[in-house]
Amino acid sequence: MNTFFKPILGAGLVLALAAQPALAAKDKTPPAPAAAPAAATAIQGLGVADLEAALANTNAARVADQQRPVTYKATIDQYQARGRALQTQIKAMEDKLRKDASVPTANRALLEQQAVAMQKVQESGKNELNQIIRPVVYSGEFVKEQIEDKMDQAVKAVMARRGVTLLLAPGAVVLNTAAGNDLTPDIVNELNTLIPAATLSPPAGWEPRQLREARAQQAAQQGAAAGTAPARPATPAGPQPDSR
């Protein structure tokens, strides 16, 4: 297909080059150079920082991202192989269901059973894959938390050094043309000093902060509900004496 377009592009290029001398003869005055845009002045006391980008660009995060596929190669290979097997299994079930449904006298109840069975395989397969890949996901979260634990210290140090009293996220700024207000590179450098490297694999039983906080919140809610539940009256040990 490209062979049809190449001659057209070539002819257009020749015509454009041939027209240049005529245009030059018509107007020999060279165009005035475009004025360079004025450099934006950084606003004193104001800073902008992308903390997610800063975290991802630290040496600790970059090295961990390089090591993870090697350290967890067996897990990743198992995840991919099982995913392909499940995909093949589900496709076969889907093809059979479609073929059976195309028969005019198809049994609707049997078709529904096939659909339910296929859905169960999909759901169980998703849970199985999540279970297989969990160590890899937890590794990423573990490294992220180690860097996040130093983020507050790094941000405060950079703000103090740069004389910044108000720090904004990129999403809170419509337009910022002053590179001097961007603290992200300085925060990356500060994090590299505070945490040069991170531990790749979490200890046994470790869970990401989001899960830990969710469990703690659930436990607190259950405790509060148990504390506010009305007390049940004590069950009498035996028959009560007649007051008459």
Keywords:
7 helices, elongated, two-stranded parallel sheet, 2% strand, mainly alpha, disordered N terminus, single chain, 244 residues
Structural summary, described in words:
With 244 residues, this protein is an all-alpha fold. The chain has a domain at 41-203. Helix content is 65%, strand content 2%. The chain contains seven helices and two strands. It has helices spanning 2-26, 51-56, 59-71, 73-101, 108-162, 184-194, 209-228; strands at residues 46-48, 166-168. It has a two-stranded parallel ribbon. α3 runs antiparallel to α5 (108-162), α4 runs antiparallel to α5 and α5 (108-162) crosses α6. It starts with a helix and ends in a 16-residue tail after the last helix.
Short description:
The protein is mostly helical and 244 residues long.
What is the radius of gyration? 33 Å
Oligomeric status = single chain
The helix content, as a percent range, equals 55-70%
Which structural class best describes the helix and strand composition? mainly alpha
Task: Kindly estimate the percentage of residues that lie in beta strands according to DSSP.
Answer: under 5%
Major sheet details: 2 strands, parallel
